[in-house]
Structures are given as C-alpha cells and as structure tokens.
Amino acid sequence: MGAVVTTHQLTKTFKSHTAVDSLDLHVPEGAIYGFLGPNGSGKSTTMKMLLGLTRPTRGEIELFGQPLTPASRTKLLPSIGSMIEAPPGYGHLTGAENLRIVQDMLGLPPAQVERALTTVRLHAHKDKLVRNYSLGMKQRLGIAMALARDPSLLVLDEPTNGLDPAGIEEIRDLLVELTGQGITVMVSSHLLDEIDKMASVIGILANGSLIFQGAREELFAHSIPDLIIETPEPAAALDLGITATREPDGLRVSGLDPDQTADLVYRLAAARVPIHQVRRVQQSLEDVFMDLTGRGGLL
Ligand SMILES: Nc1ncnc2c1ncn2[C@@H]1O[C@H](COP(=O)(O)OP(=O)(O)OP(=O)(O)O)[C@@H](O)[C@H]1O
C-alpha cells in the first residue's frame, strides 16, 4: 500500500526544547491513522508541520509521494483538509454561512460544499447560529469545512476532545465512513479507547518520539495480557512458588507467554490444584500504552 504521508527524521525544536524528535511517520493510503500521545507529546506540532503551518527544524516530509517544499506546497496542500485545535467557525454566523466563506475563499463548487454538510449530518441545522451548536455539532462543522475542498487526506487534531460518548461515536462513525469513500484520515487523540475502536494503524508519541508505529494487532502483540487462574485453592498454587497476586476468584499472573502458561498449568495440575478456568484479561489500548510508556517508552 502506498503512503500518503512519509516523514524522515522530522524534528521541531523550540529554543532548547525538542518538541518533535526525529519522526519517521508512515501513513498508509486508506488508513485511519490514530496518532496517540499524552498532552504535550508533540502531536499538534507534528500535524502543523505536515500542513505547512510550522517549519520543521530538521527532516523531510513527503505528501502523496512528493517532497513538501516551498515550490510544491501550493500543489500538495490543497489535497489536505484539516482541523487543528479548536473547531473553527464564527459563532455569530450560521453553519451554512460559515461554509459559504470557505466556499468563496477556495472557489469551491456549491454542490461540493453542500455534500460536505450532508456527510457530517448537519444539513438540518445549517441555518442555526454556530454559537447555539453543541460542541459535537461544532466539531462536525469543522470537519465539513475541512471536507469541503474534497481532500484525499484529512488531518484532525483531537476531534473528539470534550465530547460525550454519543458525540464520540458520531465522529468515529463519520471517520470510518470517510475512509470508505477513499479518504485517508490521520486523527490525533489522547483518548486511547477511542483510537482503539477506529484506527487501523497506530502511531504513539511520548516526549516527541515515536515509540510505536504499526497495525493495532502488532501493538497488542508487544504486550502480554495478564492471566487469570480461577481456582478455589489459591494458597495451594502460591505454595508452589509461583509469582501471582490474589483475585476474587483465584490468582493473576503477569508476563507469561504461551509456553510458560502451558508449563504453569502443568505444574498446577501435577500438584492437584483444582483449576476451574485459565483466561487472559482483555487489554485496552490504555493498558498497553501505560505498559509501553511506563517501561521508558522503548519497544
Ligand atoms: N510555539 C511554541 N513555542 C514553544 N513551545 C511550544 C510551541 N508549540 C508547542 N510547544 C511545546 O512543544 C511541546 C509539544 O506540544 P504539542 O502541542 O505539539 O503537543 P500535543 O501532543 O499536541 O499536546 P496537546 O494535546 O496538549 O496539544 C509542548 O511541550 C509544548 O509546550
């Protein structure tokens, strides 16, 4: 699969502080690329560099296979729709009026703008003043403004920030629908569960460095979920010298791979410890993330 965004050693330094450090990003075409990281890890700064809003201190950016340079930016950047930080839009104007400004500024066909409004399901509210919109509606208007130019790539900085679960679900469904229309989506968040549910590829930033990039499944493969051993006789199991913590229905054991799990079950069975069930704990992305960053952020 081709890459829509590639960066080589992308770095941004503010005075003596390195906000983004030597990033090699790879955003595959057609993906929802979940760009994850705690506050201040450098997500917005990275996105601003991709959009030509902030100049990199060092490194290169390729968009749609072509280097982003002062000469190429006017050709490449119109293919990107973006929403960075707070949703845009004038509160004293209606949704439709806000979109008309975008339409006039960029010289867009009215039908294209109308389609963006329908895609984000704001058509019924287009004549309301934006200051009376809910936060979710403002976010969707921001996405419509980004979509109006019919982009190949959508770059969204924390579009679910501050939304309730229903609003988050709406944005998630919308982004999935957009990739169905052939748009690549790069979306940042510190809401780990949120990214987990929609991203096909994940990049994790910590202190400006990329500590993981790859398919969601690969991320989980790096972290071994705890094992729960259900037994009415946990003391008998602990007597065998295994390292475990007590759970209401038995014991919890960390860090065992499949072979070590098989060994443990064999030892318990040989010692006639009754085992009712052995299962892996479901891990959220948050667990995996804490695991990675807690270990110093190195994979
Ligand atoms: N214009 C600037 N001047 C100086 N430092 C900056 C500037 N912009 C960002 N920074 C610093 O760079 C680091 C990364 O900030 P950035 O906003 O990119 O992080 P983030 O991951 O997007 O976090 P958040 O979700 O809180 O916005 C922070 O330490 C921030 O204070």
From TrEMBL:
Question: What SMART domains is this protein classified in?
Answer: AAA
Q: Which residues form the ABC transporter domain?
A: 5-232
Question: Which domain of life does this protein belong to?
Answer: Bacteria
| Listed GO MF terms | ATP binding
Which Gene3D superfamilies does the record associate with it?
A: P-loop containing nucleotide triphosphate hydrolases
Give the protein name, as stated in the record.
Answer: ABC transporter ATP-binding protein
Q: Which family does it belong to?
A: Belongs to the ABC transporter superfamily.
**Which keywords accompany this UniProt record?**
ATP-binding, Nucleotide-binding, Transport
Please list every transmembrane segment annotated in the UniProt record, as residue ranges.
none
